[in-house]
Hints:
The complex is a heterodimer of chains A (about 500) and B (about 220).
Chain A: H1 21-29, H2 32-54, H3 59-75, H4 77-90, E1 93-98, H5 101-114, E2 119-122, H6 126-131, H7 133-139, E3 143-146, H8 149-156, H9 173-187, H10 199-216, E4 219-222, E5 226-228, E6 233-238, H11 242-248, E7 252-258, E8 262-263, H12 269-280, E9 288-292, E10 303-309, H13 313-317, H14 333-337, H15 339-344, H16 355-365, H17 371-375, H18 385-389, H19 396-412, H20 418-430, H21 433-450, H22 463-467, H23 480-488
Parallel strand pairs in A: 1-10, 2-3, 2-4, 4-7, 5-8, 7-10
Antiparallel strand pairs in A: 5-6, 6-9
Helix pairs in contact in A: 2-12, 3-12, 9-10, 16-19
Chain B: H1 3-14, H2 23-26, H3 42-52, E1 56-60, H4 65-76, E2 80-83, H5 89-97, E3 101-104, H6 111-115, E4 119-122, E5 126-128, E6 133-136, E7 153-159, E8 163-164, H7 167-179, E9 184-187, E10 192-193, E11 201-202, E12 209-215
Amino acid sequence: MTTQRLTPAPPEGAWLGIPPFPKAVKTELENSTQRKNLRHATGTIRAKRAVRASEVHNWEELRTAGEQIKNRVGRHLDHYLEQAEAAMTAAGVHVHWARDGKEANEIVTRIAKEKAVDEVVKIKSMVTQETDLNEHLERNGIAAWETDLAELIVQLGHDLPSHILVPAIHRNRSEVRDIFTAEMGQYGKAAPEGISDDPPELTAAARAHLREKFLRAKMAVSGGNFIVAETGTLVIVESEGNGRMCLTLPETLVSVVGIEKIVPTFQDLEVFLKLLPRSSTGERMNPYTSMWTGVREGDGPQELHVVLVDNGRTDVLADPQGRAALRCIRCSACLNICPVYERAGGHAYGSPYPGPIGAILNPQLRGITSKVDQALPFASTLCGACNEVCPVRIPFTDILVQQRHRVATKKTSKHPTIEQGLMKAAGWVMGDGKHLASVQQGSKLAGRVFGKKWIGPMPVPLVDRWTQARDVEPPPTETFRDWWKRERGDR
Amino acid sequence: MNAKNEILGRIRRALADVPKLSPEEDVPVDWVHGQPLDTADILADLVEKIEDYKATVVQVGADEVAQAITDGLKAMGSQQAVLPDGLERDWVAAVEHAGVRVHRDEPPLSHTELNGIDTVVTTCAVAMADSGTIALDHGPGQGRRALTLLPDRHLVVVRADQVVSDVPEGLSRLAEAVADRRPITWISGGSATSDIELSRVEGVHGPRTLYVILAR
């Protein structure tokens, strides 16, 4: 028996239905519409970011400041969290702590039930994607409505987000029109009859569809870009005004925020409010930034909750090298610059955090027990473009290599692999000139056997993985050492 | 153990390698806060940046604001306007002079009532030229947050002495409002989205039209 859902169902299995990256990427690469959409979108946004960053004369100093402030927070996180909690509590905010996603979801659900609401409006939030809050609320009879335009496209499209900032980046305008036409009417105000695929028309349809939800909502759920420890101020940056609607109109507001989102002082925001919009949407400033410090009588929600979520972040913090990933301010510049992301798209990463940040964050947040998380550190060419654009200077490639080592060590701890044997043998050969010389005698022999013929496909296990796609030159009949001796004698 | 103590315990174990120093000693920050930019003409910079967001800016003398309000409301085709407490008296007269029906937020208007009003007229707290940002601290003349959100047109008056070069100075000027626990809203152009193919569309949920009067 199927029960009627309140909100559009996500795809079967959601993130868990996605295989590890090497397999998932094959399917994604076959989707030529998606590749075209992504190439266009990432190319546009990359160019905008570069222009906006170049306008700031001390951009590099600003990045360094971002890195240092976030390092200061991470290395003294207990201190700043306690300071933030005290400041928020003094301002009338109910502060909750959640060890994991399940606990965070339960806290939000409990508040919704206490308020006797059967729906909540939501501001785009990465952490509630991470905890899968919407489905938890759905199972408890509460409808969660995404109000960010791209999140709405994803939700109505029975889809998953594929980008941190623009979750529907993989969809083009005609796909959006089809989704709106088919779905909007089932969950509220329908899209106008005969709507075109013109973005302003589609945006107007979303405005009308969501306006009635904003006006009747009694409770909103948000994330948070920053919490100022000194003042207890929460900060949300956005473009569309859906955030302001959710932060202003409902009576109750619950903000679910990762414990790493703290900045020490209000003035520290100057660094991040310059870095974030330019890195993220390539704008000098995002259209709206909301800051609130507790309850304001007669203005906005009169009941405020903040849920501070760990959900693996303390595991990331425990790694002195890997903890740099917690500096991330979710701008998505690393996705937009990444040649792998541009072709694979976000879904192949099997997490709401795709791209380079996903490749370093997921295996640390979730651990490396699953094949999906074991594969992620390898979903990169190590080209390092992400290192250069990151506004808080996360050393992506260093952490990727470190995570690869972690995965390799885990995989081979019980079952040594052929690759490992080969590497060990190579280590012996390269470790001593005499060893190399004796092996080269063997390669000379092989060179004589093959003559001048290139080596094509070979039915030898492991070797065939290479030779099925590439021809290999035959080994030389003379080694460099022999040539040197012949040409230069013993000099 | 409760969740808070457990999480704090996890953090302290995770940070066992960090020396027991104050945060400032442990991680120095090489950045001087609150610095201005050496922009030659701050007001011109503000105008250029706001116009880049496709918002309208008109520049008038300090004694021409009332007339500019009348002109602005006519230009936007406003029918009804909500006026927060604390606006100058001749501005209110200027709104009426434009043939616009005036609503006061006293007693507080319902969200539905506000949704039916097409324009709001406010002052601001500070404007940051480099990013074209206008900040409200919802003090006198600015109203509670819903007033500048639900109406579709926002006419805001910025005084020249409220304009600073960049974000760091702007935050310094807002420090007092934050200490007072007042909410703060930054507005950089009208609401916008780039969620469909990254093509920018002006006007989503917030006011779709931003009309700025800069009083020199």
